[in-house]
Amino acid sequence: xxxxxxxxxxxxxxxxxxxxxxxxxxxxxxxxxxxxxxxxxxxxxxxxxxxxxxxxxxxxxxxxxxxxxxxxxxxxxxxxxxxxx
Length: 85
Hints:
The chain is mostly helical and 85 residues long.
């Protein structure tokens, strides 16, 4: 039986902080691993990235990862009032 390791909340927050604070608009997984203050198992990191993408905090593409979450209520209101193209 294969058991999957679940990331701790501290590890998820650590990854979120690095992604949110990145100066670039896009960061690769390899660069993310280098910037993390402590090592994270690759499968655990993949689980975290899947969670962050499903919760609409990041976008993962072939070129890298982009932090997209913006909790500003003014942005939410503007999007709600925006025109559909």
